[in-house]
Design a protein that fits this description.
Elements lengths: L3 H5 L6 H21 L1 H16 L7 H22 L9 H23 L1 H4 L1 H6 L6 H24 L13 H26 L3 H12 L13 H8 L4 H12 L8 E4 L5 E5 L2 H24 L8
Antiparallel strand pairs: 1-2
Length: about 300
């Protein structure tokens, strides 16, 4: 674990030394998480048991949120159709898949942000890589998402989705989503420890974030300029990529969608994948570095 004096001397170190120290910290954090993988597994199981303990609906809760999102999406689409806006590709299956992705992100961030505060006894009494706490929250949410994804996969043939090579993009996009979610959870859980109102800001953003993320709609519905602005959201390429992959589109090829009014909208560009990957892996590196550098002070703020 890094020490205060080492952290303080970082600013005065030459750029090459600072980069070397940053890589060393990342390697140390990664190694500690790997060595604590059994603890991570047990904490994930604990969170799953707590979530389903005395739950009447059981695994039904895992698919309830995606179903509600699909229902809301159908209402939004019905309203937009009356204004002459295209529904885009993917149909109901695309909306359901994006609903599952959003449920995973919002649930993991909600539990992950509060994970350090919720485990105050562990954090303040014994040493272990604190990173496993928000990661365990993500793992527990991933369990729910897996159940919902299996249910959707069974329903895909009945929703008009056929097997195509484009479906191979789904695991890649899932990896980007999990990586980006891990980055956000690590950063926000750390920030919430020092600024307790962070959790309220997160709740607010998750409540209204669905309207700024292409879950209920497609970016093409917003017109040429609106589509470009919408895709600046790091989650947008991941969710839209899932929809287009289900529709059979190769994500290495651009896609233009045309509204019922004849307006051409550039709905997809291949560089969106690089943009999403930059946010996911770059964000994870930064969040992990910040978390690892500050975790020696966590007990002081609990």
């Amino acid at each position: 674990m890094s020490h205060p004096e080492a952290t303080g001397s970082l600013a005065a170190a030459p750029p090459s030394a600072a980069r070397l120290r940053a890589w060393s910290s990342l390697a140390e954090a990664t190694r500690e998480i790997w060595q604590s993988r059994e603890l991570l597994y047990q904490l994930t199981l604990r969170d799953i048991r707590i979530r389903y303990k005395q739950a009447v609906m059981g695994f039904g809760w895992a698919i309830l949120m995606p179903i509600m999102i699909v229902g809301a999406g159908l209402i939004v689409r019905l309203v937009l159709t009356t204004t002459g806006v295209t529904n885009g590709s993917g149909g109901l299956a695309g909306t359901a898949a994006k609903g599952i992705c959003w449920s995973f992100f919002s649930g993991a961030i909600g539990f992950g942000t509060a994970s350090l505060i919720a485990n105050v006894n562990l954090v303040s009494k014994i040493y272990f890589p604190r990173e496993v706490l928000p990661l365990a929250a993500i793992g527990a949410q991933g369990f729910d998402t897996t159940i919902a994804s299996i249910a959707l996969a069974i329903a895909l043939p009945f929703l008009g989705i056929v097997v195509s090579p484009a479906l191979l993009w789904i695991p890649v996009l899932a990896l980007l989503l999990v990586t980006f979610t891990s980055a956000a959870a690590l950063f926000l859980s750390c920030a919430n420890l020092f600024l307790r109102d962070v959790k309220y800001i997160v709740q607010l953003l998750l409540t209204f974030g669905i309207f700024f993320t292409p879950v209920l709609i497609e970016p093409s519905m917003l017109g040429p300029l609106g589509a470009k602005l919408c895709m600046l959201n790091p989650l947008a390429p991941m969710l839209e990529g899932v929809r287009l992959a289900l529709a059979g589109h190769d994500l290495l090829q651009p896609l233009v969608e045309v509204t019922t009014k004849g307006v051409s909208v550039l709905a997809w560009q291949p560089w969106y994948l690089l943009y999403a990957a930059g946010w996911a892996f770059g964000g994870l590196a930064v969040a992990l570095l910040i978390f690892h550098r500050l975790e020696f002070t966590f007990a002081e703020y609990l």
